[in-house]
Specification:
Order of helices and strands: HHHHHHHHHHH
Number of strands: 0
Number of helices: 11
Distance between the termini: 33 Å
Strand content: under 5%
């Protein structure tokens, strides 16, 4: 039961609220657990036992809470691995030049745009959140074997702004990118809808398999 709650919170962090407050963790995490077992009659008795035992409930919620740091840690690790390929950074580039290039990408927000050329330091300002790093991390983090994106299709199929912002920043800049996405959603709804549709379909596409998604 606790493991189900742990996975439910991982999905919640990735698609709804990437940085839940420790002040609201009891209500938010318990809600995730309740929603998880809502349609599983065999587990409702276990849920009632946990609810009636304050100490047990505390232990379960503490365990579930670990999902927050876990998913952000996984993203940091996978981002570091994906950066060279996703951004076309050659292995021959000197470490100092790599550091300077990454600093430029972060400072200018170039890292999130399509058409990025790290040599000429140019990018397509009309293609925000379109860098290959987004697709690469979606697949690596959520659409690998038994990934949450496959097990919980409805949560990911519309590419939540929360997920995109979490890829951009696993820390203090998260809300900056989330606000940017929300403004784009308001000002350019048709573009955002098509962008997310294209991204989601590209995640599912392989030479031998294609899933047609209705938006």
């Amino acid at each position: 039961l606790a493991s189900l709650g742990h996975r439910a919170l991982r999905v919640h962090v990735a698609t709804v609220n990437a940085f839940p407050s420790s002040l609201s963790k009891y209500e938010e995490f318990w809600s995730c657990l309740v929603d998880t077992v809502e349609d599983v009659k065999s587990l409702k008795g276990d849920l009632d036992k946990i609810k009636a035992d304050t100490e047990l409930k505390e232990r379960v919620i503490t365990y579930i809470w670990g999902a927050c740091a876990q998913i952000r840690g996984e993203l940091v690790f996978k981002t570091h691995k994906k950066v060279p390929r996703s951004y076309g950074i050659p292995g021959s580039m000197a470490p100092q030049q790599v550091a300077e290039t990454i600093q430029w990408m972060i400072k200018s927000c170039a890292f999130m745009y399509g058409g990025l050329n790290i040599v000429t330091k140019t990018f397509n300002k009309m293609a925000p959140f379109s860098n290959p790093i987004f697709k690469d991390l979606f697949i690596s983090q959520w659409f690998s074997v038994k990934g949450e994106g496959i097990c919980c299709v409805d949560a990911f199929k519309h590419i939540p702004n929360t997920t995109l912002a979490l890829i951009c920043s696993h820390g203090s800049e998260y809300h900056f990118y989330l606000n940017k996405l929300e403004r784009m959603q308001k000002d350019c709804p048709n573009w955002m809808k098509q962008f997310k549709k294209d991204l989601y379909e590209s995640i599912w596409y392989t030479p031998s398999f294609y899933i047609n998604i209705s938006f």
